[in-house]
Amino acid sequence: MERVKVQDDADAWAELGWRLVLEHDLVSPAGFAALPQLVRLAPRSTEARALAGKILERAAGRHGHDDLLADCAGAIAEFGRVLDEHLRLRPADYLVSFRALLAVAGEYHWANALEGFTDDIYHVTCPHCGAWMTIAIGQFGCYSQVWHGAEEIRRELRPAVETELAGTGRWMHQTTLRDGQDALARGISYLFGTAECPDCASLCNVAKEYTIDNRPVML
After folding, report:
1. How distant is the alpha carbon of residue 173 from its chain centre?
2. For residue 68, what pLDDT band results from cuts at 50, 70 and 90?
3. What does the chain look like in DSSP terms, one character per residue?
């Protein structure tokens, strides 16, 4: 990583990000090489946290530099510690840092998919009848939806209660609750909850079906 004085220069950070994360969301070799320095800056730099997270969120892509990524294992582990401490402070950049922590944990799928649940839209295929469902989670409602011409059919989502959550979903929910991020925690309970297909009335787990349809292939 070039030793450019970027701490207080938004344009310099933007240019650095363009160099390290190429078009089509690919990471350049320089991006992985820059991770250790970015992690050193991360405790005191919003921009460094965001750029390091952006690099890691794309680590599942076709970058062709798994050896460079493996060399960053120590820096990535340290970044995880930095992010966890930072999130406990309930910072303004919580969502950006939380997504980065998901990437540190190797949860690239959710690191890229998770938004703030203001008006999030996910698309899943009903595993029973094959209907293409829109899943909405946000301030305008939490529901599954299909269209037949101009006719819209909706069904309310059923949020997962904490005892039903396991694995990544449970960790995401518990972390956001710990940090007082009630809107995120509520959205996660719906994301890992149950959808009713408006066409055939069968039930499915939203996160499971979204993952089947959208999980990036690790290469």
Report:
1. 13
2. confident
3. ------TT-HHHHHHHHHHHEEGGGEEPHHHHHHHHHHHHHGGG-HHHHHHHHHHHHTTTSS---HHHHHHTHHHHHHHHHHHHHHHTT--TTHHHHHHHHHHHTT-HHHHHH---SSEEEEEEE-TTT--EEEEEEETTEEEEEEEETTEEEEEE-BPPPGGG--HHHHHHHHHHHHTT-HHHHHHHHHHTSEEE-TTT--EEEHHHHHHHHHPPPP-
Give the pLDDT confidence score for residue 87 in this predicted structure. 98
pLDDT of residue 67: 72
Q: Whole-angstrom Cα distance, residue 209 to residue 109?
A: 13
Which two tokens mark 154?
A: 């909706």
Q: How far apart are CA 85 and CA 71, in angstroms?
A: 24
